[in-house]
Write a structure and sequence with these properties.
By secondary structure, this protein is α+β, with helices and mostly antiparallel strands. The chain has helices spanning about 5-15, 60-65, 75-80, 100-110, 160-170, 185-190, 200, 230-235, 270-280, 315-320, 340-345, 365-375, 420-435, 455-460, 465-475, and strands at about 70, 95-100, 120, 135-140, 145-150, 155, 175, 210-215, 220-225, 245-255, 255, 260-265, 290-295, 305-310, 330-335, 355-360, 380-385, 410-415. It folds into 3 domains: about 5-15 and about 260-460, Vanillyl-alcohol Oxidase, Chain A, domain 3 (3-Layer(aba) Sandwich), CATH 3.40.462.20; about 55-140, Uridine Diphospho-n-acetylenolpyruvylglucosamine Reductase, domain 2; about 145-255 and about 465-475, Uridine Diphospho-n-acetylenolpyruvylglucosamine Reductase, domain 3 (2-Layer Sandwich). Strand 8 (about 210-215) and strand 9 form a beta hairpin. GO terms for molecular function: FAD binding; oxidoreductase activity.
Amino acid sequence: MTAVGRRTFLRAAGLTAVGAVAAACAPGKGSPPAAPSSSAMPSSPPPASTRPSGPPDWNALRDKLSGDLLLSADGQFATAKRAFNPLFDSHNPAAVAKIGKPEDVQACLAAAAGRLPIAARSGGHSYAGYSVPEGGLVLDVGALSQVDVQGDRVTIGAGARLKDVYAALAKAGRCLPAGSCPTVGIAGLTLGGGIGVLARKYGLTCDHLTSAQVVTADGKLRTADAGTEPDLFWALRGGGGGNFGVVTSFTFSTDPAPDITVFSLHFPGGAAAETLDAWQRWLPTTPPELWSNIVVSGGSPVQCRIGGAFVGGSSALTALLGKLEATPSSRTMKSLSYSGAMDYFSGSSSRQTFVASSRIITDPVAGAKVSDLASGHKGMDLLIDGLGGAVANLAPSDTAFWHRKALASVQVYAPATAGNRSSVAKSVSTVVSGLAGAGAAGGYVNYIDPDLPDWKTAYYGDNAARLEKVAKTYDPDGVFKFAQSL
């Protein structure tokens, strides 16, 4: 497809994308790297009670890193500190460390833990800018991007972007369900759960995680899987980025790459209420091979589009679409390979300036209420992604991702500028509050929002207490603490 803006593409096709929060670090060829020997391991952070105050010794840290350490006086710093959203260009971290291996993370923790905020950054898509902490140390793991496919398993460095993950998997004839934005990092996506266009067929990204390597706040490199560090492994599957340590690689199970039929339905202006009602009745009756979303666009009149992907052919999809009790004004359909479908959904890699939040639909909400909330908010989109299918095959407590029984997630997205950011944020909050009043009260941590009321319960439900316990176990001194950390 041509290089159009990501949201322009979504508005045209009725498709959505997945965002991510602060990510993690380090690749590995084949199996994840073994923990370094004690003699090679950098010093662990000192206990909180004995940590010196004041800034780290940046020169000493620079000498220990395999990559660069950039300070504010360095010429590349202004670019190196940037997140995906230009609204956070005003954030001023103290330093950006270019991470090349797990030992670099350990060195950073030994030098800076307890002295200033520390956050890892992969794709930099934290919706609240948490991966660029003011006055803190950014662990930039973008160079840790290797994707190593071995049979039905893939080991991915935490700095890998989705576009590179998909390319490597497609080349090997394999598939991993994940998001649609090409520059989202695998780390933040996975740690928050990983909603995507194949979720109803294959589950969330985190459902395919078999092990992860994590540098925890004490400087230790740990392997977390079902048999080793099981509580940490549970928390990493949907407990949010930046809460438990810095992940240095992920190993996932994969599936054979399928052929996919994509579709887009457009409806007349003013038909959003009845179309959303019909979509909510229809989606739960469809097989898991079908994923769909509906985009409700604010304005006067309110507009809506339905899009989606089907693991199967066009004739079977046509029959399923015929059961939707809403009549589109136009319909397009296209059969694609797995790689072609991921390209179709990806849109542009350009940075975008926006304000966003989320809600979760468990039981159907009134289409008229949603349409009324969107009315007048020109430029705002409510991107409603279908769940169910394989996502619901696990219980809410099986992993940290709580919303297993939900019908859909709602991303409330509005373009903004530095000048109108405050008013746009107020509009988004008004719609988010209205959605909660209509019955959609949960939230998705990968669309993290500092203004979301009762955010801990919204993101984590009854899993919040266990997640807090895991966070306290692995980071008792709050080395990775941020505004919405556990």
